Give the backbone structure.
Amino acid sequence: MNMKHLIPLLAFILLIGCDGEKTNVTSSDGPTEEAATEAPSEGSVEEQRLEKKLAEIDIAEVSSYSPWSEQVIEIAEAIPVQEDGQIKPFRAYAEPKMMSFHGSLTMKVKAGGKVHKIGPVAWLLDCMFRPDLADKLPVFLLDDTEILKPFGIEAKDRRARLSFQDLEDGGDPEENGFTQLINRGRELLEKKSAEGEVSLSDEEEEVTRFAQLALTFTGLRDSMDIIRGGLPPLDPAQLAYVDQEVYQTLRTTMDPKQFGFWLPILRETVQSTQRLDTPQAREFEYELNRQLTFARFGPAWIPPQQGEEKEWHTIEARVTKFLKKELTDAVEILKDFKKLEAINKASGRPNSGEFLAALKEWQTSLADRAAEWQRQ
């Protein structure tokens, strides 16, 4: 996505905050599969027709999908996370996330002639470490896909499960369907804010809710961009506040494309770019802000340091504390970035021994620190 399309997206993130995962556009209170089959009597023709329809929309062809191993799932589901003031395993964190998008705790895809069932932990791992694959998964359950037609997003059935790729494939060459949806959602929220709750029609409310849900998905999916790297290059000679000896030392051990490379000198780098009037400086600042913005949507899985408040941190919150010089141990965040970058680097072979070892190291590190924090 280019900068032109990303600017309104970031504005919309700031407008809705980070609570989009609590919004669901399905109309029923319970799991959608159960609600959809309650009305007809058992064994009726209507019940059989609905069951067949649900089975059809439940299985999507995703030829590139490969499942995570049981070992990966076992390690990942035990990673401690804080949410709503409670420490919970990663599985308990992932389940409501998946439910809010998918209306079910099981996602079915077909690859290589086999049907794979994807649970909450596997799906969230896909979002965080295999984002291109996550875009192809049928994550969004929509009771009425007609609301998407104005944005050029077409679905075969009125009630369907769509992938993020389905949203992007709509629209036109100038603005894809997702961008059109987000822009319209932002306009409707601004109208609602200015004119009051009753200013939107039922259809406009549905568009707003789904736009918020789709945007929240991108936040969750891109929450690890800060680990995946991709910061634009800067000419070290123009970084007036950066110690050049420190910079060169970092280059011998780390990749300048990775966020972790810049973290030890990030305060000085930002001070330097603010003095520069160059496209490179503006691009660096923009990408830095984008990655930090999306990192807000990630899990709060970094325990507080000794003497800190009881709140666990997202990566974004931890980096912010580092920049404000509020950490009692500034080295710890550098170690955390190295662990996460090792997981990301190994994610190209997700069931390899390298990936398992990196994931296990992260899980063990967090579990040990969580236990120590709870003893305080």
Observations:
- The chain is about 55% helix and 5% strand.
